[in-house]
Write a structure and sequence with these properties.
Oligomer: single chain
Number of strands: 9
Structural class: alpha/beta
Shape: globular
Number of helices: 8
Bound molecules: guanosine-5'-triphosphate, magnesium ion
Order of helices and strands: EHEEHEEHEHHEEHHEH
Radius of gyration: 20 Å
CATH superfamily of the largest domain: P-loop containing nucleotide triphosphate hydrolases
CATH class of the largest domain: Alpha Beta
Length: 307
């Protein structure tokens, strides 16, 4: 039996629905999704394996113009995942089309280079909430770029055309042995996804800069015989005032955060857990190379550009 396997990177503006699409293609919630931009910060690997093929999806951060070091690292993650890809999905949001500004295109298109071996697929998302005119407009705009091998319209949220997209990807995969064992869904561990779930709840529950100034690290994850797993998470913020907001009056805010997060963590792990949250200040961590490194944001060095 010939095996087809390949890397498929999903790129596009913040909020386009990249993580929602990853989850829809995998048939399982792996990557966190919220209504807020810049939810995803690191490259998320999601692996879909069948007998005769394997697709290694890379969900990427939507970052337009980096304003601080963390965002530069996020952009590095986009660039390196584009470099690794056999197939690139450029995801566009039909819900935000502004027909009066036909040329207000985004920088993501500049990461896609024609004339390489890579297959390029333009995908228009959110068909369920967009007018047929907006979808047509975007469809034509993408086709006119002569950049894409295929262009199609989907709804990642309600599943419209997601299977068609999957079939298209399978048909374009190169012949190659599988990269990962069949039972592996991601190269990240449970700890990472648990920290992501906590971050998702912070994005949902807190306003303005708070979620963007927050990082979550799992410090302890212990399976205990006859008792619930113990998970201790540290939430890092940039300033003391943010610590106060995160905790809330009499600890009310962090209690609510803990309840929401635990609910989803238990769903994800499919077992009950005991979750402890603590908060620490790491002054301006988003701009600090050392802190970023300790939080798992890779060096600029391993995304060095080809000259
Ligand atoms: N109506 C509708 N909403 C969608 C669709 N796909 C995604 N969304 C919503 O759009 C918002 C953003 O989705 P995400 O998947 O987090 O977007 P993203 O591109 O990963 O965003 P970043 O990680 O911030 O770059 C969420 O509220 C999703 O529920 C869709 O097909 N239709
Ligand atoms: Mg995302």
């Amino acid at each position: 039996m010939s095996i087809k396997s390949g890397y498929v990177s999903i790129i596009g503006k913040p909020n386009a629905g990249k993580s929602t699409l990853l989850n829809a293609l995998l048939g399982q919630k792996l990557s966190i999704t919220t209504y807020k931009p810049q939810t995803t910060r690191k490259k998320i690997t999601g692996i879909l394996s069948e007998d005769d093929y394997q697709i290694v999806f890379l969900d990427t951060p939507g970052i337009l113009k980096p304003k601080y070091l963390l965002q530069e690292k996020m952009l590095d993650a986009v660039k390196s995942s584009v470099r690794d890809a056999d197939i690139i999905i450029y995801l566009a949001d039909a819900g935000e089309v502004d027909q009066s500004k036909p040329n207000s295109e985004d920088v993501f298109l500049s990461y896609i280079t024609p004339g390489t071996e890579q297959i390029r697929i333009g995908v228009i998302n959110k068909a369920d909430i967009s007018s047929p005119e907006a979808v047509d407009f975007l469809l034509n705009a993408l086709k006119e770029k002569n950049l894409f091998d295929e262009v199609l319209v989907i709804s990642a949220l309600n599943g419209f055309n997601v299977n068609q997209l999957k079939e298209l990807l399978i048909s374009k995969l190169p012949e190659h042995p599988k990269y990962f064992p069949d039972e592996i869904v991601s190269d990240e561990n449970e700890r990472f996804f648990v920290s992501e779930i906590i971050r998702e709840k912070i994005l949902e529950l807190y306003k303005e800069e708070i979620p963007y100034s927050t990082e979550v690290i799992i410090e302890e994850f212990t399976e205990r015989e006859g008792r619930k797993d113990l998970i201790q998470a540290m939430i890092y913020v940039e300033r003391n005032s943010q610590k106060g907001i995160l905790i809330g009056k009499g600890g009310a805010a962090i209690k609510q955060l803990g309840e929401h997060a635990r609910h989803d963590i238990e769903e994800f792990l499919d077992r009950p857990v005991y979750l402890e949250l603590r908060v620490k200040v790491r002054e301006d961590w988003r701009s600090n190379e050392q802190y970023l490194k300790s939080f798992g944001y890779s060096d600029n060095a391993d995304s060095s550009e080809d000259n």
